[in-house]
Amino acid sequence: MVVLVQGLVARRRGPVGRMPGGAEHRSGRTSNHVSTLPTPPAAIAWGRVGRYDLSRDDVAQLLDGEPAYRATQLWEGLYRHGSDPSELTVLPRPLRERLAHDPRLAPSLVELRRSTSEQGKVVKWLWSLAGRGRVETVLMHYRDRSTVCISSQAGCAMGCGFCATGQAGFQRNLTAGEMVEQVIRAAAAARAGGRRLSNVVYMGMGEPLANYERVWASVERIHDELGLSARHLTVSTVGIVAGIRRLARERLPVNLAVSLHAANDQLRNSLVPVNHRYPLAALMEACRAYLDAKGRRLSFEWALMDGVNDRPRDAAELVTLVRPLRAHVNLIPLNPTPGWPTRGTPPHRVRAFRDELVALGVNATVRRNRGTDIDAACGQLAAAEVGSVDSVASMASAEATGAGASG
Ligand code: SF4
Question: Which of 265, 282, 287, 352 is most buried, judging by how many CB atoms fall within 10 Å of its CB?
């Protein structure tokens, strides 16, 4: 789910009941999380699997006939240094040249555009995916951390009307390797600027829990091979209860961010169509179960829309839901979007809404929309490139919580 992205008023109902990738790929995980990424059927369908979809065993097979330590050198070159095989001078030149031409080691992402803003503090990429689709990734530098927001799907089937990605429709699930590669490429860019990538948030294009197996495989790969701790990884969702419950059973206690936007079913049905399938009572129950299982602070994203969900009674309803969970609320003023009539809440009323929450005992932070001058709001750049228009999202990022959140 695009936490960066939030929208409101559902002008169009999406195929709520359909969970791309969810139903058809059951339990691809095994206990051997290091050696085996599930080979995503979608990747095969698109004709190839990228270098970060390969397991260690796959890499060893590529180097069949070479000393065993060569596989380790290649693996570490890919993950620790984000290097292209052709750049790995630790390997003999003939081997480098062979690997450089091996299509199984080709990158999955082709950079179509890179934009920077805020004196280099925000970098946004538009990638072309091998096979089909375009997605975006945003890297944000803060004083004390650098966070990358990655996409989990090309398009989205959740149908949130305010969201450019949702309006463009669903194209396909990303493979685990395509998600890992977004992180690797951002980490390399951070390193080049003298920074270290510290946080990953799944808040770009797509609903992560609708692409569950691949998202989780990428979480484990990022955790195990890049060394990012679970507390620095945040998975967002627009409210897929089955996915939250499954997440609660996983071995890594990642942060969970839920894009809420409304605290009564009538309003939420109109903004976030998946609420028809998973109404608020079920969603809050699942959030409680996650909190009990993992002990991680929950965060809820709330895109503030003028006159829609920014009234005192909206604040009161929100408090009723989140205070028992001791959750944090991130307030994100809705970005202006062409074709979307609802404006974002003006700044003074955003502050008043926050103050209301705080007065009622809820931790709340107003998040900045970072990089809006480069369309860093989720879905915007990709949507523009593929001919869609409206967008929304707030690439607000993990500014408020330190872990990230979105919605
Ligand atoms: S349509 Fe998809 S990407 Fe857009 S806000 Fe909804 S869940 Fe997120």
Answer: 287
